[in-house]
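2024-03-11 09:14:02 DEBUG pipeline.ingest accepted 1 chain
2024-03-11 09:14:02 DEBUG pipeline.ingest length=101
2024-03-11 09:14:03 DEBUG pipeline.predict start
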Amino acid sequence: MSKPVTIKLFDARLSFSSFRIKKVKARGVEIAVPSATGPTLIMTVKKGCTAAFFQADNGGWIIESCSRKPDFPRDFTQQLMTVKDITDGTAILNLKISRAR
């Protein structure tokens, strides 16, 4: 990836419609998630780790976990993004919608 890219999400259960890959680094991917109620959330997700980002009426969060699926409050729909691999500035991501039970 030579420049930032926006990934559109099409799940109506989410309160945001996209997130942005800002930069692919040797050890992780910098993401930006727009928050409808506050500032844009930014995090670098390390290779092999999963980030969960989600929003609620009182704001949004990004949680990263490198050992298991990230924990998040009940009754939230979230977008999971796992950085599977990074090679020569290119990242392979796994995207998944998940809902708390």
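2024-03-11 09:14:41 DEBUG pipeline.report The two ends are 36 Å apart (CA to CA).
2024-03-11 09:14:41 DEBUG pipeline.predict end
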